[in-house]
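Async update (no meeting this week)

Hi team, since we skipped the sync, here's where things stand on the single-chain job. The sequence we agreed to prioritize is pasted below, unchanged from the tracker. I ran it this morning and attached the output directly underneath so nobody has to dig for it. Comments welcome in thread, and please keep replies under the output.
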Amino acid sequence: MASHLEIQLGIDKRWEIDSEPYRQFHQEASLLTYRTALDDLERLVVMRLFELSKLSLSGTGYKLRQQISKALQRRSQVIWNALSRFNLQAAALVPPHPQLTWKDIVEYSFLGEFDLLHQSCSDICTLDWTKPAHREATVKYFKLQCAREEIQRLNIEIRRLHTAIHDEELTVNATINSLLISNKPVGLELQHQWRSRTAINAAHLFTLDRIMSQAGFSGKRGLGTRLNGTSSHGMSPALHYLQLTYL
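Output:
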């Protein structure tokens, strides 16, 4: 039967273990087995992630939580077995592919993290962006860029807050002194309410002074200039503060 098929297919020479076609087929077969083990492992881990997310939902009942916990315990052993098969197939490839540990599996928190391990025709695992060190460096780079933008914004907000506290203190104190003469009950009440606000402002000023005294502070020190001396609806800051207090 084998000879008859060889004649029909026009096979003149059989594959040998050391022949190039045999080695190529063996490598493709090993890669297929590796992909199958990887797909099985990914399926189990994705199921585990969905169950963990369901377990943490507020609307999940007690009985369902107990069932999910028991399912997670059973699946842990299944994941262990799948992980062993994956590492065995990864070591059999030429060259050997990176293996996974149980710690790596537990730390996976996103469904797409396993996609980086998939082998395609172009072998994406050889690309720079698939290497964990390169991805971590990229994340830190963008965090630094965002931090620089945040520093520029904070340099503006720090001076704004410092100026607002200073102007508010001058305006409210002047309003209190005026009310103590023209309307003493309102002046005394505003003075009483202003004490708690003064304590809060003192804590803010202490923090702002510590920030501006740092050697690496890149903003402008000192007070700014308020463009408009009134708050909302044309009301003075003191009266606006008193209105907010009683709302």
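Quick observations from my side:
Confidence is low (pLDDT under 50) at residues 230-235.
The two ends are 97 Å apart (CA to CA).
Reply here if anything looks off.
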